[in-house]
Input
Amino acid sequence: MTRQGIATVAQQEFRIRIRAGRWRWLLAAWFAVLLLVTVLLKLSVDQVDAGDATNKGVVVYGGLTLLVLGLALLVVPTLAAQSVNGDRERGTLATLQVTRLSAGDIAVGKLAAAWGTSLVFLALTLPLVAYCMVLGGVPFGRVVVVSLVLALLLGTVASLALCLSALLARTTTSGVLAYLTVFALTLGTLISFGLGTALTQESYTATSSCPTAAELEQQGVPAQDRPSILAGCTSSTFTATRSRTDRVWWLLAPNPFVVLADAAPQLPTETVAQARARTAQEARGIHRTNLRDADPLGVLGRSVRGLRTPPSEGGGLVSVVTGSSHRPVWPWGLGFDVVLGGAALWLTARRLRTPTRDLPRGQRVA
Amino acid sequence: MTGQGVVVQGVQRRFGEVEAVRGIDLTAHSGEVTALVGPNGAGKTTLLLVLATLLVPDAGEVRVAGFDPVTQADEVRARMGWAPDVFGLYDNLTCREYLAFCGAAMKLPKPRAKERAAELLIQARLADQADVPVHTLSRGQKQRLGLTRALVHQPEVLLLDEPASGLDPRSRVELRTLLRRLADDGTAVVVSSHLLGDLEELADRVVFVDRGQTVGEHRLDQLPTGSEPRPWRLRALDTDALLAALTRRGCDHDAPSLAGIEVRLTGDDAAAALLAGLVRDGVPVVSCQPLGGQLEAAYLELTR
Output
């Protein structure tokens, strides 16, 4: 495998793709849809609260990003799912295999072309992302990380689709299976997590203990209410059932949406000045929705981290899920996805290796 | 340029239940055109796929340009050109782009690939079409482009599967000339074809295969003259005199047609003897020719 060989294949694939499709229309439609959604998100954020001017971008960016991932998961399979068996059907694969290009050159070159095309779609969303940053609250670091993770996820899907096109003789079969693979990664992980959770039901016994005065103070309970709470509390032992999602969280980890949301860096904590301003407003009776709490990526990320966290022993008062204290899910999910994509690429190259010993049923050499 | 040609011994290959090749021997020398002849399904295409480093044979020895196509595929590929019977072209590329791409795939340096593309376009009479998309080419032009692709890296061994199918007569003549020239320059050319007339004028050697096996391997000037009677056609200025003379000699003949009279003769000696006799009888014979050619006769006899 050489860089020059990969570049030769990728260039060729790119050129053919560009000349074959109606790319201008496809890219225009893609941008138009995302632009429309961005505008709608902005308008709805304005509706909710016009006051929190500094964080509007957070919600718009989160919504936009999840939508971009969803749409890209629909587009990417078509970019690669007929790459190898399509060439075989047109009779162009064997003439490529008898050149001095190696199987690795062909596999990686084809992946580079499909992945590269999907990155063009991603690049087209950058103006909208810039708009979100202008709206406020989106740190540059978050955009960088989210874009990288998105690119890796699309590469994984492209590699899986490419592999199917190398394994299966018919382009229609590989096309359908590529979409089923995407469904397995998105809905499939969700369903298996749901079913897995049902299996982890357990009953447990716990004793509810009364909070101490110090704890109540820490939780911000007003001083005049504390005595009545302490007086009305009796500790008791009870039995209940609970789901141990911390045992099956990994079923959900490969889900691209989970990976993306959880990988997005947490928003920086409120600055002292911001917190003071908010408290001052609240003291005057003005309660504003904090748009940071409505950050779609943050909400999703925090909830999957919560799923990974074992229930605290003793069953005391549920602590507020802050996210930071929980272990992240995305390294496992992204790691799994990338390894899967890598394995798919390896298998693709293996299937492209010639001379062949075994020929799958219904597949011609040339 | 003297290469080592192609040596094939006892190659076998099956696809599941089907024994496509059951034992083919073949030798193709550098500087010669070797014809691979046999009925459809005889295993010609499978053999060429083995030679082209695409299929692993189940058994047998194969050397292409001195290398083993299974264990030394890259060495073989650097020295071998292959034009399959059905080949795909990228419809949206121009001829020039396509050939440049093939050159890059063969690891020619970029300027060399460009230069080679220009050379080959002229050779294939495609210079006028160099910058139009491939899908606008005629069938014959596409065929020529497909053959040209196999020549990009000036291979020592050229493998052609039915290169002349779908070509018009002029293109076929040109193909013959091209292959002859390549052979004269030292290339070992292996060509499978059903166009026996073309092969008879082009090939130096012929290998007959039938049902996956080699049934004969001959120099073209040493074809077995069969024991079977073959048709010959005689024409004379005076057809009646010819007819009378043939009848008198008890020769197995058909009714006269505008083209002459067909007779069945066994072996070249019989033909020579008959002709001498007719001349002695004073019949004004103007032509005496075998019908279908020697190669066809040998083919029909060997692949029954």
